Amino acid sequence: SNLSWLGYGCLKGDGTVITVNAIGAALQTLYILVYLYYSPAKRPVLLQVLLLLAVVVTGCGYFTILVDAGTRLAHLGLFCSVFTISMYLSPLADLAKVIRSKSTRCLSFPLTVTTLVASSSWTLYGLQLHDPYITVPNVPGIVTSLVRFWLFRRYRPEQDKPYSPLPA
């Protein structure tokens, strides 16, 4: 995601998008390297990293070679938007589990706060620039965060039943 948005920022010449996503891409690369270093099963993790790298290289090749320069920004903006929307909607898979179990144990409150702050900030920035590729995909982040806050309020952690050890 960061690499795609970094490409979008470079094509558009937007220093804010470039800076934020360059830092994000560097931190995520560092995370992957540390994870790979400490992972006991190095081969499957390395294969996943190589597959991800192949996808990134293929995407760069597609947008550089096959998409003409006049529509490249719009195509990349649309790609980044779809990717961002899918990222923000992914926690919805846990909502049925939360409602069924009446427990928010599988949701992260700090991640919900961070998602609301980040998606709100990007939405406001996109509105300021009149850039629908930045504005539109961040609105679902706000909506899903508000839904998760409602679930935290509805199913408070103190209502959760404590785990009991399995009988021996």
Automatic annotation (TrEMBL):
GO terms for cellular component: plasma membrane. This is Sugar transporter SWEET1. The gene is Slc50a1_1. The keyword Transmembrane helix applies. The chain crosses the membrane at residues 20-38, 45-67, 73-95, 107-127, 133-151. The keyword DNA damage does not apply. Keywords: Cell membrane, Membrane, Repeat, Sugar transport, Transmembrane, Transmembrane helix, Transport. Belongs to the SWEET sugar transporter family. It is a multi-pass membrane protein. It is found in: Cell membrane. GO terms for molecular function: sugar transmembrane transporter activity. It holds the Pfam family MtN3_slv. Its main location: membrane. InterPro entries: SWEET, SWEET_rpt.
